[in-house]
Amino acid sequence: MEQLLLKGWDKSQTDLVIPFLQVVSDLLGKRYDRYLSDKYNLTTPQYLLLLGALNDSHMTLGRLSEILNCSQGNVTGIVDRLERDGWLVRERSQEDRRVITVRVTEKGAQVLDIRKDLTHELNELAKVWNADERQALAGILMRLYKELKD
User: Fold this and answer.
1) Which of 16, 104, 129, 140 is the most exposed place for a label (fewest CB within 10 A)?
2) Hey, what's the torsion of the CAs at 50, 135, 150, 65, to 10 degrees?
3) 50-59 long-range contacts, Cβ below 8 Å, gap at least 24?
């Protein structure tokens, strides 16, 4: 797909903007995934789950599935691996024994440092634009985001 889009593409082909944006998004996702995997041995869903769990000490598996926009079964698998690797622990609610929450461990609290590292890595990539271009792009992407969310 990427090769088809780039072959002979020029700025006047506005009908290819969204497909090209998808290709760029996929490439960014791969870079994000590779960075987390190589440096921290984490997947992107694991990283996002840790961030969610860190923000709420009583985060349920159901709530995590909503945040990650995936099934509770997928969340259970992600939690299984994170618990096995010492990033978090499961706990039963004292009020309702049917409810299982997750809590990050000391190792899991490192996710804040990971976020700083990842932000730095992505900011380095953003240096391909000057400040005015970054500001313009941010505005354009925010408009697109709002359109897609509605």
Assistant:
1) 140
2) -10
3) 50/82, 50/87, 50/88, 50/104, 50/108, 50/111, 51/111, 51/115, 53/88, 53/102, 53/103, 53/104, 53/108, 54/104, 54/108, 54/109, 54/111, 54/112, 57/101, 57/103, 58/93, 58/101, 59/101, 59/102
Q: What is the pLDDT at residue 84?
A: 97
What confidence tens digit (pLDDT) does each residue in 4-49 have? 555 655 666 667 788 888 888 999 999 999 999 999 999 999 999 9
59 φ/ψ sector (left φ>0, alpha ψ -120 to 50, else beta): beta
Q: Which residues lie below 8 Å from residue 54, measured CB to CB, with a gap of 6+?
A: 104, 108, 109, 111, 112
Is the Cβ–Cβ distance between 25 and 44 less than 8 Å? no
Q: Give the tokens for residue 116.
A: 């700083």
Question: Which contiguous run of DSSP H or E holds residue 90?
Answer: strand 88-92
